[in-house]
Amino acid sequence: MSIFDRFRLNGKRAVITGGSRGLGREMALAVADAGADIILTGRTADSLNATAEDIRQLGRQAWTIQADIGVPEECERTCEHIVAEHGPIDILINNVGGRREDIPTEDMPLEKWHELIDLNLTSTFLCTRIIGGSMISTGRGGRVINIASINAFVAGRNISGRHYETSKAAIVQFTRAVAVDWAPHGINVNVICPGGFMTEPNVRWSQSHPDVIEKFKQQIPLGDYGDPEDLGPLAVYLASNAARYITGASFIIDGGYTLI
In terms of pTM, does the model score above 0.85? Predict the structure, then answer.
């Protein structure tokens, strides 16, 4: 057997939340290219349909579910629908999240704090509980890949909104704890912590705060932002049999930013 066969995902079915754009889209395309069929969630029908069509062009099946996973009640309904209509699920990538707000801690309304914690942390918990939990009952094992951020370890500079650092750090520890709980079921749970990637929000930020974007770039030892497609190979690895002996691990992909 070739070493590359261990990276194949033929016959697997994956759920990627927020999978129609940015990092989620690139992970979805990579996992599909490795052989998995894909269920995408997202808030925008046009981007969902476009990504689903690209997946089908790779010869894989794709289903789309338009939903806001950052809203707990909607997240629960969507996850239960996925398990009932599209199960069994082999791979879950919890990608939904974002800073969204640049509000200093001293000015952060409690309601806004709850909303943003739900977006980043509660969504990961609910999807893991419902979709990941279904992997236990099927007895097939599985992979859960959570998407955190380097801001789980370092504070973002020249930007406020510390709900983001808080929730992403919690995701890292949630990953470690669930990995221990679910290892006897053959379910590997790992977390990817991206650094600076030129996703749509960062492109917009570069237009309104070009000095911040340029200064961040200067602090990356590899000299530039990551391309969203750089995340795809890591997602494939963690979803595949090649990573069967890895669980509870955090993978930083940031061009070396957190080294200095």
Answer: yes
